Amino acid sequence: MNMPEKKKRILLIEDERTIANLIELRLKRSGYEVEVIYDGIKGLKTILESPPDLVLLDMLLSGLSGFDILKTLKEKNLLPNLPVIIISNSAQPVQLKRAVDLGARGYLIKVNFSPEEVVEKVEAVFKEGIKQDSLSESNVLLVEDEKFLADAIERTFTQKQYKVLQATNAREARNILGEEKVDVILLDIILPDIDGFQFLEELKKDDKVKGIPVIIISNLGQKEEIEKGKKMGAIDYIIKSDTIPSEILEKVESILKSN
Questions:
Q1: φ and ψ at residue 93, rounded to 5 degrees
Q2: What is the pTM of this model?
Q3: Which CATH fold topology does 135-258 show?
Q4: Which of 4, 78, 124, 216 is the most buried (most CB within 10 A)?
């Protein structure tokens, strides 16, 4: 007789009770066991005494801030193995980078997310931990001039043993394509030398590289731009503000599996 699979336990540390209640209810409906704590000191104590499968961590807490908790977990070598998704009122890149550098796996901005999106982020982080040995030998060319995002994507992919080849413009990308085997390209649209759409058109006209799948990652999210990218040959179009690096990884792995 097969034993039922044990529910994943999520610790939600959030002092805004209305938000906490909404997230808790949605996660429980999705089959997770959820414990809610409303202050930082008790939250850290619970993590250390009874580590959960994942932590949803507010940045602004009484007692200890989210950053204080992340620093302690980092010092105790619990990060990044313990998945932590931060919840923040701020979308400032400096603060988000600080959290990611400490070992957070992803982040949610309060004004932008719904309880359903919390579940999607949680599931994406859990899937990130599933090893894919055959795929992790692949090379990913990342054409992105926003360093914070590029570094966050590279960290996520290298944790799964992918090789990430970073280019900040089309010229650097051309050089990499001429020297390295590339299995998939992540392409920003706003680049410092030429427009990403122009570069995509160039790639699809080059017999040597036109078969490499291209995923656009952009802040431009109008329907016309998405349709234009796909019509020009991009296999997918990702809006930066709606996606965390682990979700980009999931899309890349799905594409590599199908090729």
A1: -55, -35
A2: 0.54
A3: Rossmann fold (3.40.50)
A4: 216
**What would the CATH number be for the domain defined by 9-128?**
3.40.50.2300
The dihedral through the CA atoms of 118, 124, 126, 128 has a sign that is: negative
Q: What is the pLDDT of residues 20-38, one digit of tens each?
A: 999 999 999 999 999 999 9
Topology agreement, domain 9-128 and domain 135-258:
yes
DSSP state letters, 102-140: HT--EEEETTT--HHHHHHHHHHHHHHTS--TTGGG-EE
Containing 99, the helix (H) or strand (E) segment is: helix 93-102
Phi, psi of 214 (to 5 degrees): -120, 125
| Whole-number pLDDT of residue 258 | 76
Domain boundaries, the chain: 9-128, 135-258
Q: What is the pLDDT of residues 126-171, one digit of tens each?
A: 877 644 444 456 899 999 999 888 988 888 887 777 889 999 999 9
Q: Report how far residue 258's alpha carbon sits from residue 95's, in angstroms, rounded to the nearest whole number.
A: 37
Tokens of 252: 């890349």
